[in-house]
Amino acid sequence: MMRYIIAIDSFKGCLTSTDAALAVAEGIRKVQPSAEILQIPVSDGGEGMLTAFLSAFHGKRVTILVHDPLMRPISASYGISMDGETAIIEMAEASGLQLLSQEEQNPLLTTTFGTGELILDALKRHCRHFIIGLGGSATTDGGVGMLQALGMKCYDEHGVLLGVGGGMLSHIASIDTSALHPLLRECRFTLASDVTNPLCGIHGAAYVFGPQKGATPTMVQQLDAGLQHWASISGHEREALLPGAGAAGGLGFSFLAFLQAKMTSGIELLLEYLAFYRLLDQADLVITGEGSADCQTLMGKLPSGILRHAQKTNVPVWLLAGKIEHRDELLRAGFSRVECINPSGMPLIEAMKPEIAKKNLSETIKRLFATFFNEK
């Protein structure tokens, strides 16, 4: 009996990791009804991270009332591991871009305050290890909002208490960390992200990611100046240069500087908890993928992590995506097959419909399997 592992990332704005895996499994069963199929929800720290890690930890989901990026009350979820010691927080649940309409996107106003509220709730439930996914943020506030929710206060030059949002960073004249929650000293924070950008500069949070969050060129300059000021006034300029400090609009910086967090690859962390190498022992094929695959896929993204582990055990890996560029580079890297799931000429708006994407995934697998077994 053939054994297949499906570890496919979400197709952003279209399919979750779980939905994509189900579509692939459906395609396999139409060709091989008796195949053994292991479907693993996966994420590299971005969209779907909470579901993936909850599955790995056999944990429970907790839903509470917090504030969204514009400080409006919303319900957001996080996970707690079976042993009750580890909290799994996807920052986008409270501070994500998907929570805002296009007209509402403004990183001068948005805040990570809600992410801090999730941490605070987990602290009260006796969690002391935190895994934080840093993808999908609507914010460029340097993580100040998160720290404010945990007790830090920021003041302007007149001693007036400042509010929240990326636009207030340049106005910070002093900070008071004495009221940060005392239990934070007992905690360990692990950051899951594939972003290696520093906090500031042309490769930093504002310039690289700000435009995706609604920032105009003028706003980008304002935000970068604010982030530079935040690093200076906080006394943590060294941490601002660390890889990943610019993740989630600088939220990575505040974790690294104030909470002594450890930055790690999201997919490597997940595969470690899953003991993925053991799952590969009896596998005949791994199928992975993402919405769009190109040479950047090889730079620490989820499919490259899957490939790297599978190569150690000589298990072939197929890569599926809604859009493919640099196919030859992907094949040279070691993927056995690199396939676009969308028929030539299909409009993007059509291909992004969930029911169409599921069908295209399933049909692509059927076609590939027919070719694969004819070749064998």
Low-confidence stretches: none
Number of strands: 13
N-to-C series of helices and strands: EHEHEEEHHEHEEEHHHHEHHEHEHEHH
Q: Domains counted in the coordinates: how many? A: 2
Looking at CATH, which topology of the largest domain would you report?
A: Glycerate kinase, domain 2
The shape, in one word, is globular
CATH superfamily of the largest domain: Glycerate kinase, domain 2
Overview of the molecule:
This protein is an alpha/beta fold. The protein folds into two domains: 3-42 and 276-375, Rossmann fold (3-Layer(aba) Sandwich); 49-264, Alpha-Beta Complex (Glycerate kinase, domain 2). Helices cover 38% and strands 18% of the residues. The chain is built from 15 helices and 13 strands. It has helices at residues 17-31, 49-57, 92-95, 113-124, 144-149, 205-209, 217-234, 237-240, 247-258, 266-274, 276-279, 302-312, 327-333, 348-351, 354-375, and strands spanning 3-6, 36-39, 60-67, 73-80, 86-90, 129-133, 153-155, 174-176, 188-192, 262-264, 285-293, 317-324, 337-340. The strands form three sheets. It has a six-stranded mixed β-sheet with strand order 3-4-5-6-9-10, with helices on both faces. Strands 2-1-11-12-13 form a five-stranded parallel β-sheet, sandwiched between helices. It has a two-stranded antiparallel ribbon with strand order 7-8. Helix 1 (17-31) packs across helix 15. The mean pLDDT is 93.
